[in-house]
């Protein structure tokens, strides 16, 4: 089992490194090709930072490891809006622009609600198609909002943070291709290692997906959150975490539905309810005061800890 645990750790490390370079190379290549910053920020960066969750869950579902696939998405969603958001609030209070609270936050919470509802009944092909259509509509809305005046501060911060100064086009193309290959390899290694560890420990795949895999695939969000909060870019923190949950729910859910050949994939009712309540709690705290304090950070951190025992009753 130690060998497979190390294998899973290697997969996580490779996945995190490769996803970073895939997003960086793609976004820089987009700049060199004069692609709109709006498209780079929302499509390349927004979707790219959640790529580990999509790919790991899709590969797990295709292998028949449905518990691992669902546990990863549900666990990542809970982690983002409880522990990671709580860590950000503990570093410093998180004030949020009114436009973000009115638009991006409700859109992300709605995506989690839709995913949770469909996951209770089973993510088959029809549900997957519905989630994919919802994702297309959400992307259209985000791009439309980002092009409005004044510019969206969350989008501007994300593009500034992720793109940096590009090199020659062929260097960035190679970086993106190497990153893509690394993501594919890392996800495969992680899924094989994690499913073997679950069998060796005698625990459900959902437990491993919710803990080891979800925490590992959320490392990009954690690093971005800490760095952005230390620089005082609170809108980037909110956009990163809520945006990750939106893409996890819509794209991740669609990938599971299309990839799973064993039938509609269902998640544990208890954890799905916790995921939905967590999204509503985080959104409600922002709507109530337009800022998160350290007291809120403690509350959100404790909320995540309280979900751990629920794994064994789900």
What features would you highlight for this structure?
single chain, globular, 82% helix, 314 residues, mainly alpha, A middle domain of Talin 1
Word description of this protein:
By secondary structure, the chain is mainly alpha-helical. The chain is built from 14 helices and two strands; from the N terminus they run ααααβαααααααααβα. Helix 7 (125-146) runs antiparallel to helix 12 (234-259), helix 9 runs antiparallel to helix 10 and helix 13 (269-289) runs antiparallel to helix 14 (294-307). It is globular. The mean pLDDT is 80.
Helices and strands in order:
Layout: H1 2-32, H2 37-48, H3 51-62, H4 66-91, E1 94-95, H5 98-102, H6 104-121, H7 125-146, H8 153-163, H9 169-201, H10 205-217, H11 219-230, H12 234-259, H13 269-289, E2 291-292, H14 294-307
Antiparallel strand pairs: 1-2
**What letter string, H or E per element, gives the SSE order?**
HHHHEHHHHHHHHHEH
Largest sheet: 2 strands, antiparallel
Q: Calculate the terminal CA-CA distance, rounded to whole Å.
A: 25 Å
- The appropriate CATH architecture is Up-down Bundle
What is the count of distinct domains?
A: 1
Short recap of the structure:
It contains 14 helices and two strands. It is mainly alpha-helical and 314 residues long. The protein has one domain (2-312): A middle domain of Talin 1 (Up-down Bundle), CATH 1.20.1420.
């Amino acid at each position: 089992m130690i060998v497979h645990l190390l294998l899973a750790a290697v997969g996580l490390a490779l996945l995190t490194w490769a996803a970073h370079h895939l997003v960086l190379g793609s976004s820089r290549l987009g700049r060199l090709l004069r692609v709109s910053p709006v498209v780079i920020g929302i499509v390349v960066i927004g979707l790219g930072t959640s790529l580990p969750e999509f790919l790991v869950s899709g590969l797990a579902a295709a292998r028949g490891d449905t518990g691992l696939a669902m546990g990863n998405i549900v666990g990542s969603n809970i982690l983002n809006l409880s522990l990671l958001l709580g860590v950000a609030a503990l570093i410093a209070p998180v004030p949020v622009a009114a436009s973000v609270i009115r638009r991006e936050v409700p859109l992300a919470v709605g995506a989690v609600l839709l995913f949770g509802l469909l996951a209770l009944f089973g993510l088959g092909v029809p549900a997957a198609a519905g989630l994919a259509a919802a994702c297309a509509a959400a992307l259209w809305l985000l791009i439309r909002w980002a092009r409005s005046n004044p510019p969206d501060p969350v989008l501007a911060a994300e593009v500034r943070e992720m793109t940096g100064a590009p090199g020659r086009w062929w260097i960035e193309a190679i970086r993106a291709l190497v990153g893509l290959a690394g993501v594919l390899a890392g996800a495969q290694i992680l899924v094989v290692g994690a499913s073997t560890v679950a069998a060796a420990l005698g625990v459900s795949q959902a437990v491993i997906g919710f803990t080891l895999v979800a925490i590992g695939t959320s490392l990009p969000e954690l690093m971005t959150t800490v760095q952005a909060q230390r620089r005082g870019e609170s809108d980037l923190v909110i956009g990163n975490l809520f945006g990750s949950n939106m893409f996890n729910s819509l794209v991740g859910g669609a990938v599971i539905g299309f990839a799973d050949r064993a039938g509609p994939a269902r998640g544990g009712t208890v954890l799905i309810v916790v995921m939905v309540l967590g999204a509503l709690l985080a959104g409600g705290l922002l709507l109530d005061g337009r800022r998160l304090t350290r007291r809120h950070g403690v509350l959100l951190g404790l909320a995540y800890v309280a979900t751990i025992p629920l794994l064994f009753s789900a």
